[in-house]
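Batch job 17 of 40 flagged for manual review because the log was empty.
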Amino acid sequence: MDYNILATTEKITMSAASSQLWMNLRAIGDPEPKVSRSRIKGIVMAETTLDPIDAIIKLREHMESEVKRYDKLFRVFPIVARVPTEIEAIVEEVQRQAGVIEEGQKFRITLEKRETEIRSLEIIEPVAAVIERDVDLKNPDWVILIEVMGKMTGVSVMPPEGMLNVQKERYALSTKAK
C-alpha cells in the first residue's frame, strides 16, 4: 500500500487505531482515506488525498474538540516521500526537501528505525553534513523526519507542528481544561 501518513499505537489496538485514523481523516476533509495495518506491529499506514503535513495540523485542531476520538493513537507523522533504505537515497531526498530551511533557521533530525541493521549515526551524520544550517535539538524551526521501515524509508522536512504526539497533547489539553 502507498502511504503518506504513519501512526503508532499498541500492538493489540492496531485495528481500533486504524479505524480511528480513518474516521479522523474523514472528519478533517479527506473523502476517501485509505488506512491499513502495517506488517510491523504497532504501525498503521494511511494514504490521504490531503497534503500530509496539512493533514497532521488539521488532525491536531480536530483533536482539541474531539479528544476521545484519538485514544488509540500515540503519534502521527507525515511522509512526504519514500525512498529505498540506502544512505545515498535518503541524503538525496533530504537535500531535495531541505531547500525550505532558510538561512538563520535551525533544524533537528528525528530518526526512527524499524527492521534495519543500519546504525543511527550512519544516517544522521551524512544527512546533517549536507544541510548548512545550525542544529537546535530543543526548539528547531524545522524537523527532518526519517522513518526507516525495512527496505523503504519515509522522509519529511517539516515544521515541528507537522508531527502529532497524541499522548503528550492529550495531556496538555487535560491540564489546560483544569
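Reviewer: the log was empty due to a logging misconfiguration, but the result itself is present. The domain at 5-80+161-177 is CATH 3.30.70 (Alpha-Beta Plaits). Unflagging and moving on to job 18.
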